[in-house]
Amino acid sequence: MKISLWINDKLIEDDIPADTILLEFLREKGCYSVKRGCETSNCGLCTVLMEGKPILSCSTLALRAEGKHITTMEGLQEEAKEFGEFLADQGGEQCGFCSPGFIMNVIAMTRELEDPTEQEIKEYLAGNLCRCTGYQSQLRAIRNYLEMKKGAK
Amino acid sequence: MKMKAVNTPVRKKDAMALVTGKPVYTDDIAPKDCLVLKILRSPHAHALVKEVKKDAALKVPGVEYVFTHEDVPGTRFTIAGQTFPELSPYDRLILDQRVRFVGDAVAIVAGKDEASVNKAMKLIKVTYEVLEPVLDFTRSKDNRVIIHPESDWSIPVGLEPDKDRNVVCHGIEERGNAEEELAKCSYVVDETYHTKANQQAMMETFRAYTHIDVNGRLNVVSSTQVPFHVRKTLATALEIPKSQIRIVKPRIGGGFGAKQTVVCEMYPAFVSWKTKRPAKIVYTREESQIAASPRHEMQVRVRAGADENGKIQAMIVETLSNAGAYGEHTPTTIGLTGAKTLPLYTSNAKAYKFEFEGVYTNTQAAGAYRGYGATQGTFAVESAVSQLAEKMNIDPIRFREMNMVREGDIMHAYHGETANACALDRCLERAKQMIGWDSKYPCRDMGNGKVRSVGVAMTMQGSSIQQVDVASVSIKTGDDGFYNMQIGATDMGTGCDTILAQMAADCLHTEVDNIVVSGVDTDVSPYDSGSYASSTTYLTGQATIKTCETLKKKIIEAGAQMIGCSSEDAEFNGREVFVPGTDQKVSLKDVANAAMCGSVHTLEACEKSTSPVSPPPFMAATVEIEIDKETGHIELIDYCAAVDCGTVINTNLARVQAEGGIAQGIGMALYEDVVHSKAGKCYTDSFLQYKIPSRLDTGKIRVEFESSYEPTGPFGAKSIGEVVINTPSPAIAHAVYNGTGLRFRELPITGEKIVMGLKELEKDTGK
């Protein structure tokens, strides 16, 4: 089926099987930051933004993105780097495999929530699994990042 | 040596690439024209493959090959990533006619894309002769069903194996007469514990791609912890010389021991070697749950006895381990259930005994998972020790203080090594203070159906496998005086490329950024056993220091010649070679550049390290939990850990290691279950059923370091990677007992089990 959509603000037109999963489609288009960690929508590694809202690209048909704007980390390099510095300063990326999906959701959270509490942060990001870190370093990084943002305002 | 980089929170060298999502992992860099492989897996726990009809599958457009046991070489091998001669049996083929668990490989299907291969998989018709399986590991020995009847089964170094009785290994180690001494004890506990086959669940599943290079050699790019062992295993499996194989390790998305086993590499390697075409395999999460390399399920009986004064005088540990269908890592993991637990309490005891047996079953083969047997043993022994303290009416922390190993003690049960660096006493005191033990032990009723309680546990691990592991490092000086560092150890996300560069930076008096570290390529990297057995910081760290010393000498020699003085009079401060007390000097930049013009000075060094000892890191932990007596839900309130890993090389990365290990341990204690159907099918085959902790589950984890100084370690360091996973199960089980009176000896401790237990307790007490 014919599909046209924007990936990181670039118009992409293609002809794809109807059952193509958005995750696979994005990787095929060179968005390698988008990772698969499971087949059951549990891990959050494949998180991308559709019209600015976080979605799991593993459980979204590519055709659902018809006419829409999809943003992957390839299209958010500046923001990824900005928060990523805080994560790196805590050693909170470790193996890094879950980092892109996690960071995409952190970016979505900071856009959506004003000054979130610790519990709100944990709940917003509960769907982003990480097996390396035990999450504490990521929480420290988010707190420091939010402090910096607050100070910058 | 002055520490500038060591003991600081240096950022991981690859951090910014990882956090900005750069394509650095195996599947990101695999060629586009790879054959895509999938494995057709057995639906039966035990069967013989009688016929495989592949015609229909081969007609699917895009599908190119279907390989079965008839196509593969007939030499048996082990996929355990271990130093030769291995203690693991050579009991596998790439594809075997006999399948030994639900999920065992039956056929390799190769095609141009995943969709066509998946379609073909459904069209392959396999006829099986279904055999009776052995699923219960307590009934495997001397079962009439023999899991490995083949005559070409072998083992390079056997620990009393008897495959005709389904026994992979057996052994006894005893000091004194443990049974006799136990009988003399005033207080004795005798309990049996059961731990499950937990999955490492690293976020990047098993994967590799292969191709034939310009010289006709097999190239393997693999997400592995053990590149050199992959080369060895593939050479045996494919019956080709090792010189024909090259392994490259890119960035790895976690391993935790899973990738110390050659789980998937033989499939694309076989296909590429046979067809001369590039091939790749990426395991699904389901495959990583059902046909991978999880922790060994174990049953551990502990008998511990103390005299009237509360001194432990005898301890007996008997471990039965479930190898699963194949024996990789079974004889080695099992030893740690005793060797990493008994030494904590038996330095001054009269006797101890350790007996072990590993058996085959028709379940998924187990392998290496962080902790490597010590984790299972720690749950059992620490639980028993807490129970013994209770029996004697002594505070469990006080009881440990009265009995634990201290610096200078000889650890008879740990190869007779002396605890030269041991801050366990300080760790325990610290963990006690952190949680506020005295005001919280054993529990507080919160008045709302909830109770808050505390628990304690302690543990030890090792640092490398003594007299076996080797690590090499090579460093060369480049123009203008930068350094290329090559290590054979694999950074699997833990940051060893960075921490070894920190060590080298301090040795060479330079900046971490001036040292370029390369990932492993078996064609060019110096030999290393691999990243496992908590060896990298300790052993590769030792090699780093040795290499730097040799290199410094060479730099001084070259510089002294330029100055025109004796190299004995010259020194090197990182920037220049100089003669102290004079103004004679030459810069490193000039020395390095001069070596590239009409010079015979080799400003490169490569040194190797191996260790006669394996100094244990120690750790003590306390935990506070809140138990909802209505639902059985356990909330982690506070997990306090004090770790003695010797000198901390990277304060951030060591902390994250500890926090991450504890979180994995929490998963093992509370959620991570492995459930099979009666026919042996694994039900917990996805993250829907197999629950690993999310960030809502781990509570607050606090880690502090109580460092000792290990005289043989680099900068005084010991290991950190594994010891951190061992305490949660016993500490949480202890807290659950203190809050409810329920003693759990089987993991995981789910809310359901707590509610059921409390109901039983009510019935028993007639409330």
UniProtKB/TrEMBL annotation, chain A:
PANTHER family: OXIDOREDUCTASE WITH IRON-SULFUR SUBUNIT, XANTHINE DEHYDROGENASE IRON-SULFUR-BINDING SUBUNIT XDHC-RELATED. SUPFAM superfamilies: 2Fe-2S ferredoxin-like, CO dehydrogenase ISP C-domain like. GO terms for molecular function: 2 iron, 2 sulfur cluster binding; metal ion binding; oxidoreductase activity. Pfam families: Fer2 (PF00111), Fer2_2 (PF01799). Residues 1-76 form the 2Fe-2S ferredoxin-type domain. It comes from the Bacteria. The keyword GTP-binding does not apply. This is Carbon-monoxide dehydrogenase small subunit. Keywords: 2Fe-2S, Iron, Iron-sulfur, Metal-binding. The keyword Transmembrane helix does not apply. PROSITE patterns: 2FE2S_FER_2 (PS51085). CDD domains: fer2 (cd00207).
From TrEMBL, chain B:
Residues 20-132 form the Aldehyde oxidase/xanthine dehydrogenase a/b hammerhead domain. One of its GO terms (molecular function) is iron ion binding. The lineage of its organism: Bacteria, Bacillati, Bacillota, Clostridia, Lachnospirales. Keywords: Molybdenum, Oxidoreductase. The keyword Secreted does not apply. It comes from the Bacteria. This is CO or xanthine dehydrogenase, Mo-binding subunit.
